[in-house]
């Protein structure tokens, strides 16, 4: 129906209702009396008709989509009708010897609201009852009968023409909501009854509508959902909804990252702003997973200039374009810089030219098995690269240097972990004699990073499986990239020089459990995809540590941030390792790297005793 046709029909319908309602009201109120003046009633009807159309235009009654009518539309009808009756009463008063048929006008007011409102809401009722319950819609269970759940239910009801979901029930652990109804949708029970309710109500789809949950609560809900064959989606987390409201379009699949995510840390905004805002900040490895997220987080604190330093041309191009698109209107100068941390002259040139106040060193080789086969590259990138950037920071007076380290640096059994520990030793040694505050921040695996296990598992699932897991008992610590990056920035504010900060990674997770969750969340069963155990790869540990028992200092220095003990570093061992690098074969280099680390651990153990 065109707008013109629709407008014509509504005007004619309202004209019929308004023109006849006052006569019906007059007959109802004064059925057997002669007090009525037919002329006064006729004049009042004409006035009422004119004023109704005026106020209907003012309150846009002819522009509303009545299929989605609700309380707001009803209020507009009441306001338009009320003002029309008042205006008609004034006309009646002036044309009927200063008298008003008040009871007749009151009944007219009621008839107008009933008939005009009823005509508008009739389509909504028909649509909700017959169209909304089409067999083509997926019967949907909403977990959470709070504000977000109610909003999702309402929007699904209102968007039945486009939405594929038909909400038929809620579940909620709130006792006060049991057996209640929201938008005519019943609350059928608590979360633990999800499997039973899905079977009883033939549920095809589950929407988790609880944007703020305590740690572990989502995992419990998903466990119940996974006992069914229904597809599971959820609304975004609170931190993702800050710039908009919950909507049907914002529903997303439940990801493993959601299950392993934790309560967000409240950052000390003032202290971060104090040392970032208005300063030049440099990030090495800016095109990588952690480096690029560091850049995104730092931009929120308005540095005067941010240097995106990296060896990969395409990755630096990507983060440069992303930041310029998002912050193009700001005064922050975004400078993409192509440079290899192994190139000492280039690093010195970059630091000397731009004089960064803060340097975040995220550039590193991180893949454990690859570095077992390529130990020379691990030393060149992780040790020599760190040494180049750190000494440039010292030479040209940077205020702070933050090394992004790894939990694999604790009692390392592989070249990658050992070179990261030696990188920590490099900055610890410099911290003793430099005005620059050098610190390292150590954490475990980050979800979704390049080379992490989850993207690999997703590719294997997409190919039909099987998922390969090294060992059924292997565990790892996990945190999200944004959380890791925020805590790295926060740790930088705490730097006094020489510390190794350790991020609280929560509880370790079995890799096989991660695989099973990912299979189920992808809509498959373990029988369909399968899991195969391939055995440990070169250099891998069964479990990771964030601090050795002899390195732990008690108490947090900030929420989820700890600091480890430090010992005297033998810089001579590191120097000899680097000098001998060109002539050292692969196996000997592995021994030399481990010798440097475990000579330091001998000192640490002796000091602890």
Any overview of this molecule?
By secondary structure, this protein is α/β, with parallel strands linked by helices. The protein contains 21 helices and 21 strands. The model is unreliable at 239-246 and 602-609 (pLDDT under 50).
CATH domain fold name of the largest domain: Rossmann fold
Q: Taking Cα atoms only, what radius of gyration do you get, to the nearest Å?
A: 35 Å
The beta-strand count equals 21
Q: Which structural category fits the helices and strands?
A: alpha/beta
**Beta-strand proportion:** 5-15%
Number of helices: 21
The first-level CATH class name of the largest domain: Alpha Beta
Distance between the termini: 87 Å
User: Biggest sheet: strands side by side, in what order?
Assistant: 10-9-8-11-12-13-18-21
Helix content: 40-55%
Q: How is the quaternary structure best described?
A: single chain
Uncertain runs with pLDDT below 50, 5 residues or more? 239-246, 602-609
Protein name: NDP-sugar epimerase, includes UDP-GlcNAc-inverting 4,6-dehydratase FlaA1 and capsular polysaccharide biosynthesis protein EpsC
InterPro entries: NAD(P)-bd_dom_sf, Polysac_CapD-like, Polysaccharide_Synthase-Rel, SAM-dependent_MTases_sf
Keywords: Membrane, Transmembrane, Transmembrane helix
Family: Belongs to the polysaccharide synthase family.
């Amino acid at each position: 129906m065109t707008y013109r046709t629709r407008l014509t029909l509504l005007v004619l319908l309202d004209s019929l209702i308004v023109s006849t309602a006052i006569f019906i009201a007059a007959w109802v109120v004064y059925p057997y009396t002669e007090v009525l003046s037919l002329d006064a009633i006729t004049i009042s009807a004409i006035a009422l008709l004119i004023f109704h159309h005026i106020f209907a235009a003012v309150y846009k009654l002819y522009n509303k989509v009545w299929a989605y009518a609700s309380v707001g539309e009803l209020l507009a009808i009441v306001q338009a009708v009320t003002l029309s009756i008042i205006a008609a009463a004034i006309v009646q008063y002036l044309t009927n010897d200063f008298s008003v048929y008040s009871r007749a006008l009151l009944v007219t007011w009621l008839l107008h609201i009933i008939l005009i409102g009823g005509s508008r809401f009739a389509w909504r009722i028909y649509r909700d009852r017959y169209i909304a319950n089409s067999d083509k819609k997926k019967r949907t269970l909403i977990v959470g009968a709070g504000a977000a759940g109610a909003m999702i239910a309402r929007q699904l009801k209102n968007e039945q023409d486009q939405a594929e979901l038909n909400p038929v029930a809620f579940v909620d652990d709130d006792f006060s909501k049991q057996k209640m109804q929201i938008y005519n949708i019943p609350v059928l029970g608590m979360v633990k009854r999800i499997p039973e309710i899905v079977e009883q109500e033939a549920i095809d789809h589950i929407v988790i509508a609880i944007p703020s949950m305590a740690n572990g609560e989502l995992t419990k809900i998903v466990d119940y959902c996974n006992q069914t064959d229904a597809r599971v989606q959820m609304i975004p987390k609170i931190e993702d909804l800050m710039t908009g409201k919950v909507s049907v379009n914002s529903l997303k699949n439940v990801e493993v990252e959601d299950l392993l995510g934790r309560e967000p840390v409240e950052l000390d905004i003032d202290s971060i702003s104090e040392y970032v805002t208005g300063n030049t900040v440099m990030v090495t490895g800016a095109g990588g997973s952690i480096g690029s997220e560091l850049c995104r987080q730092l931009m929120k604190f308005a540095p005067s200039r941010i240097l995106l330093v990296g060896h990969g041309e395409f990755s630096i191009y990507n983060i440069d374009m992303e930041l310029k698109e998002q912050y193009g209107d700001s005064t922050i100068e975004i400078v993409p810089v192509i440079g290899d941390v192994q190139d000492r002259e280039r690093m010195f040139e970059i630091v000397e030219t731009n004089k960064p106040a803060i340097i975040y060193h995220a550039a590193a080789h991180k893949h454990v098995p690859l570095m077992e086969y390529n130990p020379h590259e691990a030393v060149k990138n992780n040790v020599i690269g760190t040494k180049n950037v750190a000494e440039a920071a010292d030479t040209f007076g940077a205020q702070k240097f933050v090394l992004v380290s790894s939990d694999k640096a604790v009692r390392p059994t592989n070249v990658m972990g050992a070179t990261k520990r030696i990188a920590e030793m490099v900055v610890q040694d410099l911290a003793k004699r430099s005005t620059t505050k050098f610190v390292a921040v150590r954490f475990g695996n980050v979800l979704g990073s390049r080379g992490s296990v989850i993207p690999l598992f997703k590719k294997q699932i997409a190919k039909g499986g099987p998922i390969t897991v090294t060992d059924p008992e292997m565990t790892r610590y996990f945190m999200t990239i944004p959380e890791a990056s925020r805590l790295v920035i926060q740790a930088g504010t705490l730097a006094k020089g020489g510390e190794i900060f350790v991020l609280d990674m929560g509880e370790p997770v079995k890799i096989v459990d991660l695989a099973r969750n990912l299979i189920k969340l992808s809509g498959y069963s373990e029988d369909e995809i399968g899991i195969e155990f391939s055995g440990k790869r070169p250099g891998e540990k069964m479990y990771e540590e964030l601090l050795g028992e002899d390195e732990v200092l008690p108490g947090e220095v900030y929420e989820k941030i700890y600091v480890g003990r430090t010992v005297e570093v033998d810089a001579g061992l590191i120097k000899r390792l680097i000098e001998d690098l060109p002539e050292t074969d692969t196996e000997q280099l592995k021994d030399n790297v481990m010798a440097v680390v475990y000579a330091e651990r001998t000192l640490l153990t002796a000091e602890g005793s």
